[in-house]
Amino acid sequence: MRRTSPVPYIFLAPYFLIFFTFWAWPIIESFRLSFQNTRSPAAGFTLFNWARLPSDPAFWAATKNTFFILGVQVPIMLVLATLLAIALNSQMLKAKGLFRFAFFAPVVVGEVAYSAVFRLLFNGDYGAVNHALRSIGLPAPDWLNQPGTAMAVLILVITWRWTGYNAIIILAGLQSIPKDLYEAAHLDGISPWRQFWRITVPLLRPVLLFTFVLSIIGTLQLFTEPWLVTQGGPGGATETLGTYLYRTGFRSFNFGYASAIAYSVALMAAAFSIFQILVFGREK
Prior knowledge:
By secondary structure, the chain is an all-alpha fold. It is built from 12 helices and no strands. It has a single domain, classed as Orthogonal Bundle (MetI-like fold), CATH 1.10.3720.
């Protein structure tokens, strides 16, 4: 048998070392911790953390908030992203590169920077939004200290940041659709509205499914926006699974229970993704 040279594996060794140290080992260690009561290390293997999840009201409140964002924000964002992608793909649009950059720019803005900007914009006392509302005689709510308005601001922030990102992905899908199909439909007298539903949407289905699955996974892991903009408040009204996991692990130092929460989020994301792929990913 021909001998395999060890040289390629020597060059790959640093990557594998980093991968196992900072990726594989933490995943395995987190799974092990989920079966330990880290506040009582002598207890050894236990199902205490997993048994606690169904009876933890804070966990279910965070889950409810996360699924509310998932059910409201994700559809709005994907609809806006699709409309934006169609507009950016229009032949009548000039300076397409400039507009694409402008709508994609929020993704590259620092998370702390744009979170601080939105906190200032929606400040109840001196925010620019309330200043504009007062100038035209409208009531100025305390946006970040009321449950309903705080959730609305959070949804607005997430939509502002990720709509352009998804629009660029959908735009790539639009540009892969053969123009001959639209030309043939136009010659047959099919209206643009019917072309959209009969040609664009069916051929965009794999791309829309991809963005939908990514959005579901991202929402279930949502941490940055609720932590930096609303800090999970007021009174836990915008607490998500990500912020609750952080509080449990790095504020209460209950790493075993935090690991159980993390794996429950991973299981939810996997279940949703598999369901979407099985239901909407089948070819007709």
